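notes to self, project folder thing:

trying the whole complex as one job this time. last attempt i did each chain seperately and stitching them together was a nightmare. four parts in total, labels are on each line so i dont mix them up again. if this works i'll redo the older ones the same way
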Amino acid sequence: MPNAAPSFQPLYLQVKDLVEKSLAAGEWGPGAAIPSEALLAQRFGVSQGTVRKAIDAIAAENLVVRRQGKGTFVATHTEEKSSLFRFLRIRRNDGRDEYPASRILDVRRGKASVEAARHLDLDPGDPVILLRRVLEFSAEPVVLDDITLPGALFKGLTKARADAYRGSMYGLFEAQFGVRMLKAKERLRAVAADAASARILKVRIGDPLLWVDRVTLTYADRPVEWRRGLCATRRFHYVNELG
Amino acid sequence: MPNAAPSFQPLYLQVKDLVEKSLAAGEWGPGAAIPSEALLAQRFGVSQGTVRKAIDAIAAENLVVRRQGKGTFVATHTEEKSSLFRFLRIRRNDGRDEYPASRILDVRRGKASVEAARHLDLDPGDPVILLRRVLEFSAEPVVLDDITLPGALFKGLTKARADAYRGSMYGLFEAQFGVRMLKAKERLRAVAADAASARILKVRIGDPLLWVDRVTLTYADRPVEWRRGLCATRRFHYVNELG
DNA sequence: CAGTGGTCTAGACCACATC
DNA sequence: ATGTGGTCTAGACCACTGG
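result (full assembly):
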């Protein structure tokens, strides 16, 4: 019956693209169930096996979560403990699991620097929101993050609003601004603490800090966050798995 | 016809385990083709689709590489430019692609320290091989690696033999000792350079260095290398992708 | 040409969740 | 009982490789 499309791409990849477009368009909200495989097969005029392969690929990218017997759901940052740690790579040296608290120091509007514009695919001078926060483990300041966001996407973001939100930064972005952080590219270096960072992180000026530059992407690999973190790694470290 | 096994595991996972066991046992050497899907299906008494799913999963773990029209091949560190950069995360800040040279400073036998034993799942005092080398980009020393290997697995490893090998460290381990590095866990910190490291990396004592601790695993997640790297990140950085 | 992996289908049955 | 995803099969056809 199917195979009406004379396209060069496999059917299941075409289906994958269509479903991802619907996800990007917000056809189904975060945490909601997407239509069953049978329904999607009917909608696109392909077999259920083809839909299955498409959704398998989407699930492999963590855009969607399968739950046997229940359905397939749009992934979200507001639940799923497992997902939380996907973007948080700082751990205690002693191995104890601990989820840090986020203390917001400042939120203000500004204009994109040349560097910020480059990372966020904006023009220099475009409106941005600058957010500074500290991650604390057991009340000990460990990471100082300077976060730059495109002003156009985060219009009403204020310190009060961010303080009021219970959950992760990315949960806030998703729940209140409809911006879904899907993947990120990071660059790490070791740098010496300057006066301001040293004061906030309670280390000495010149002490080594882990410098983490992150650009976070949403659908279609569009950059929507640029973040520079400085991490005091005396009792903490950054974890990574090479597969 | 199949379904003879009253097991709790899906058939394709059983097949996956069997094929992985054959890989671990070296039934097919690095770079060699494994049997075709049809042959494996026949061998295990399952359908080709089930074998396909099993091999898909193995390919997703980079143990094996599919090549349409040719076959499925045991992955190797000695070819595939793409694979080389999987374990090498250091890049130039200016974005230029460059593959570094490895200069071996020293290879000697020793006894496992408590720390080495813990990382390599040995007993303290067990024989190990200690290898120290420098990675150089354009003749500039950038990374100082102290590598600890289980003596039992790398019996004849000497400086002369390592110097003679053309290719990556993991290519050497695979080609000459039959030890395949499959994945790794890393922990990163920022530290201050001590006298010895500073001299080799040509930085000042106290300068910040990126500290990279890596345990590399082979089949069955068995640890077979512990490596501590110190990286001067003035003109270089460590890259990571969060998916 | 034959052999390989890659796609697609249709249908059966299983495992799990919910009502 | 029904609906969901999960497994498995059998067979057809496509796309690529190499003799």
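what i see at first glance: Confidence is low (pLDDT under 50) at residues 1-7 of chain B.
need to look closer tmrw
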